[in-house]
Amino acid sequence: MLVSLRLKAPVVLPCDPACSVLRDAVVDIDADGRIVHCGPSEDAPELPAGAQLRELTGILVPGLVNTHAHTPMMPLRGLGGDLPLMRWLTEAIWPSEAKMIDRDSYDGMLLGSVEMLRAGVTTSVEMFFHGEHMAQAVLDTGGRVVLTPGILSAPGLERLGTWQQLAEHTTRWIDTDGLRFGPGDRIELGYGPHSAYTLPPEAIAEISRMARDRGALMHIHVAETLAEDAKQREEHGSVPRLLEKIGALGGRVLAAHSVHLSDSDIEIFQRYDIAVAHCPNSNAKLASGTARLLDLLGGNVRVGLGTDGPASNDDLDVWDEVRLAALLARLDRGDAAALTAPRALLLATRDGAAAVGRDDIGALEPGRWADVVHVDVDSPAFPRGTDAPDVQLLSNLVWSAAASQVTDVWVAGQHVIGDREPTRVDRAKAQAEVRRIAERIAS
Amino acid sequence: MLVSLRLKAPVVLPCDPACSVLRDAVVDIDADGRIVHCGPSEDAPELPAGAQLRELTGILVPGLVNTHAHTPMMPLRGLGGDLPLMRWLTEAIWPSEAKMIDRDSYDGMLLGSVEMLRAGVTTSVEMFFHGEHMAQAVLDTGGRVVLTPGILSAPGLERLGTWQQLAEHTTRWIDTDGLRFGPGDRIELGYGPHSAYTLPPEAIAEISRMARDRGALMHIHVAETLAEDAKQREEHGSVPRLLEKIGALGGRVLAAHSVHLSDSDIEIFQRYDIAVAHCPNSNAKLASGTARLLDLLGGNVRVGLGTDGPASNDDLDVWDEVRLAALLARLDRGDAAALTAPRALLLATRDGAAAVGRDDIGALEPGRWADVVHVDVDSPAFPRGTDAPDVQLLSNLVWSAAASQVTDVWVAGQHVIGDREPTRVDRAKAQAEVRRIAERIAS
Question: Which residue spans traverse the membrane (chains A, B) (predicted)?
């Protein structure tokens, strides 16, 4: 394939398993938006005539993967701020969601997608309603999404339809448009049965069958809090045991949160290769607990990082999850090396992609989509700029560089953030639309 | 006193003990830089002729107080990123500090002071070397500092002098310039005996006497890790017991970290009214542990928040400490209301000031210095801007608003940050100086 765009920078982090640091390197991208080469400049092939060269001054990293989000909740940020999960859902969130209409999912997703892209988060795994509107928003901003429209029975949300209707809707959509579509395969569809406490077991079993038949991801909340899953634990031992018993674990499964897992639950995750979306900020803020990250990693369970919705975190900044995941793991073990800066960075990139079952994003390697983020080092966060030795540079990036150091972002080779601003949508207008929704819900 | 400057905003958070939210309110400031009035606009006195009115569109809060920092370490950020405390000190930090010269304390403090002011942190309690250079840097940026020059015996740092010489130096300085000086009392001096593991007990006892004789703050690391204080615990039961035994606890004492405290240690803190600088990010990153924040607060121990040095956190953003303090407290108790957003905000403002023994900063109240921060709400962090109800607004501020939402800062009524940039020093030049130091240390 012919190179159509070359990104060149003093430092490139391909996010290979060793978290290598390449100095003076390039990322070559073809016209379709796939990476064809990533390596030191001196080894790079000659740039073909007509190809564009973009020379950058900082660090190139793969776009971060947010493995669990409910982004259209942007207008609800800060509601029920100090409530635990079930009161937060029943008193603050569900009554507000009941006032949201189809088009709100477009506007919330649009602004949230911009917020994520500006932070270098190029992919999110989304569970919310009115998926077509969400897909359109992501197509408009130029982001990437794994879209698992939410399926649940919750008070006030009956107007969305029964779980059967919701599941059938997703099935029809997949059967019409395919599992992946859009330029650069930027939309992937999957199933989003909400949880074992908002759906009967037969619903989850049926949805799981639909997903497996189509090779689609099943994205479900598992063992987020002790209280919500009490009934399942009493009857079945645990939610993973319930899911195993009803035959819901054969396919691609992403278990969000997974805070309260016993050793035998982890064995179930291993047996069925279930992946975890670890959401440390949300789980701490709602006082749900902390997932056993190091035990999961030690057991070769696939783990990515998730922000959860912007109303329970309260942001969409995966860099924050990287830091908190590392801090909590270190406290857990009393060992400052329990989760190093480079290992934590991989969680948000390569591992996040793997958790979603994707080997075409999350790293800067030939054949993967060119989802690339440029981090500016002209900041006190980088006392020696890109000249620092590898360990210090990775520390500066992970511990000190905020999302605000991201200046440019490409998704499938398309330049979607330039000089910190979205290139395709009007950020002020997107924010004004979300404000209008927030005022309407409050009125 | 005549009002010379009035700040007017849709929301003012005076940080009174109830964390009130004032709507459409003003902060009136006299020519000396003290607050003379804070309240709703409708109750405000008529503005005298010649007084300046500044109308803002967001939220006014008191400047945040960073109760524990070593800010001149800016050039060392990211060194020894994944090491535990003692290896981090002996392998990465002390050898690098040994290469720092007097003037480096000016340059590091200058850039760090700018970083803090831009984040809305107006006061920091500092322990480092070459205090005169640090004081000059803070006078130059327009910030405020409680400066306790470091006193210790550490390998490679012998050139700084013996502990006696270091302590005498501080004493001479206080006896010459007084405890507080500079416009708006922007410099306060105190004593900084480093710790019980870097000083003999007789040194701490002697320094404590010097501090008490002068009404000065004694700022000391206490029980940061289990390993470093093992000798003291073996011989005396604990570091607080050692300090009590040698008579070092009679005066104003700020105990940084205080991670490993028993119930009887907390009783010692209560008995002598010892304050704690809680540093959750540093303590987690170095895997030292987590201080018993809720037990300390429940026991009426004064607690503020600290970032620790920029090389062990790795930033100087007190908002991050607010969030992590709340997250860890909630996880500790399994209760999402264990530390609410407003309570956490008070830790960084009013309580931080009280922890340092200051009732003239940390709140927007008549008689206090006008250290005021404006937080812009034109961001997805505030879905309803300043129109959100109090609970949501406080949640948006604490959980979602980053330091980057700070646009303007006043210290003792002087405008030191305008439109996100320092008004008195050249930020690019300050950053270049720190880079030069970092390169020299690495060479």
Answer: none
